[in-house]
Amino acid sequence: MRPERSGDEQRSRGLSHRPVLRWGLLAVVVAVALTVALWPRDASDDTTAEGGATRPVPVVSEQDRAAAALAACPRPGGAPVGDGPLRGITLTCLADGQPVDLAAALAGKPALLNLWAYWCGPCAEELPLLQQFSDRAAGAVTVLTVHSDPDAVKALVRLTDLGVHLPGVADADARVRVAVGTGPYYPQSVLLRADGTVADIVRRTFTSVDDIAATVDAQLGVQA
Length: 224
Prior knowledge:
Elements: H1 7-38, H2 62-68, E1 90-93, E2 99-101, H3 102-106, E3 111-116, H4 121-137, E4 142-147, H5 152-162, E5 168-170, H6 175-180, E6 188-192, E7 198-202, H7 209-220
Parallel strand pairs: 3-4, 4-5
Antiparallel strand pairs: 1-2, 1-5, 3-6, 6-7
């Protein structure tokens, strides 16, 4: 028979397990925190307060728009509008607050729509590259930013800080993302043919201007 342990021995064994349990609990907490940190954010994250109430979205002033000095949004040029996924979607131009019929405005020319949000770190790295690519393409491809978050003021501030002046639209409800059938991950770029159909969805961050140019050439047949 095994001898019974004394009370002191039992207490000693119990104490020896406590650090193991403590470290195990800490590991679980860290794992949960990392999962939350890496989870993709959707457009509604910053507008929902505690208890489900909706936070007011700041109104964009003319001063905000002037400070950003964005290029004018594309406008319909009379080209036929195809049956692409953007047909029927009208968004607000960040430069002047005017409505933009996306399908009509983009018809007749290949386009790169960059879906981004002001809180997205990789987006801030990619946007200046897109500006350089647009300058290099010299109008052969329409490059349009699509801010997929309700807070357009913060979008304008971010673009101003980055020195990016590309034309852009505010997509508070992520309608473009839903229409093309992609998930809530940013940045990602939608490559559209001249007829409005989707050639490709690039679900990654571009690493250089040459990377953008090679992708556009491969998917849209436009060299820049």
